[in-house]
Request: fold
Amino acid sequence: MYKEILLRLTPEEAHDEERCRRAAAAAAGVDVADVNVMRLLRRSIDARKRQIFVQLQYGIWVGEEPAVQASPLRYGPVDGGRRVVVVGAGPGGLFAALRLIELGLCPVVLERGKDVSARKRDLATLCRNQGLDPDSNYAFGEGGAGTFSDGKLFTRSTKRGDFGKVLDVFCHHGASEQIRIDAHPHIGTDKLPAVIRAMRQTILDCGGEVRFGARVTGLLLADGAVRGVTLADGSRVDGSAVVLATGHSARDVYRFLDAAGVALEAKTWAMGVRVEHPQELIDSIQYHSPQGRGDYLPAATYSFVTQVDGRGVYSFCMCPGGFIVPAMTEPEQMVVNGMSPSRRNSPFANSGIVVEVRPDDIGPYMNRGPLGGLDFQAEYERLAYVNGGRGVVAPAQALADFVDGRLSFDLPECSYVPGVVSSPMHFWMPEHIGSRLRRGFADFDRQAHGFVTNEALVVGVESRTSSPVRIPRRPDTLQHIGVAGLFPCGEGAGYAGGIASSAIDGERCADMVAHYLGCAR
Ligand SMILES: Cc1cc2nc3c(=O)[nH]c(=O)nc-3n(C[C@H](O)[C@H](O)[C@H](O)COP(=O)(O)OP(=O)(O)OC[C@H]3O[C@@H](n4cnc5c(N)ncnc54)[C@H](O)[C@@H]3O)c2cc1C
Reply:
């Protein structure tokens, strides 16, 4: 007999594993001694009311064993297989490469940045404010923008692909099985590098290639089809198809595509600030208790969305127990983002609070064509840079002061290691972003009383939530609308946002490459 049982327990009860097992057996009407196997399938927290509940879903096998599930992943040798160039080793590129291997094709992964270990050293240099490597930073390098992140694995795009398969691939490469159970899974910045390294090893063991320091500077085009790419060192890499998974920060890629006459489109994106609160404050708001989260609950999260003057204003990439990090890719830019370790145990909670930006919001920049949004984004980052301190010291303002339009004389403590400097961000931000942000914050405070406070800090700027440019592709084949064999992939192509959806998109692009090459399985 197999039964599924849903328990709603207090956090303290749910913390006691043995007690949960007994409660699940009792709810299934069986003696715990008769249970062959009991598995926790799903865990979520219901914090809508004052009494918090942990919801646990168990699978219980009595008098039988669960069927042994063979791994759905098949990574075999592909040396000698047709070569497919994969540009970028972020989630889009890595998942495309691993899926190509399953399909018997040989990926050649070209990554402008360094391997995760070398990249870590460059991030330490950056956080000490001792210089930025434009090819090795929080956006560029092995694992892409997702490596030194919170590693939240959440997507709304499950309709377009198999999220379960993405979790399988992560677990196969060393991620905790907990990601299959938690309603809002995350891996953590301390665990991700080993997972990414293991993915690289699979590609190499199967006969694929991974080249670092390989910055792609152009496409090799002939008769309307792509035949490979050129690299910054002047060499070329041939391939039967190219998966272009370069992320939204690779502005040089959009520019070389545009210069080569490859069609691009302007799209809606979002920009704003990163906000940081003491985690204790968020815990007390979200768990409705001045005592905070107590001993049995995780660091609380939040998610807000509102409409201000016809544009969405929303929280993005919330990192409980996390850190704000410098995420720029070129000198004289100021960009911040957030990350958390797996235990989410820093005393700070941060998230991006961003405003939807449509191409017709950016005035004269729109007349510059599909890349106008990039110029507007760059200008916003330059403004933040000139209003910040030396190097990567970020401009900041206490949150209530920002909402009220006042300069902050005192700034609260902050997790951003390079440091912050007080700046009247309400004053220099483009009006259509700044004013919507201020009204959006006021609305969030009505939803979560105490959210707007001078104990919290806004840090500038959160500009890279998504790409202002799309590299358009045909919905049926996922090939670029004008270049055969070119598969724009992931966040930089404008078809994904976040680790999980970029990974799903990588898998889908690989499937379509196999169709294109006539070797679909
Ligand atoms: C600090 C931080 C925290 C984040 N936290 C989360 C999170 O918790 N959850 C979540 O879902 N998302 C998070 N994100 C967003 C997430 O990382 C991205 O959505 C995701 O990585 C996009 O995947 P991608 O493969 O499309 O592009 P990317 O990850 O951007 O990868 C693109 C890769 O292409 C390489 N590249 C670029 N140009 C070239 C070139 N010319 N030649 C060769 N290689 C090139 C880059 O070096 C990079 O490695 C975070 C991002 C940042 C910066």
The radius of gyration is 24 Å. The longest strand covers residues 35-46.
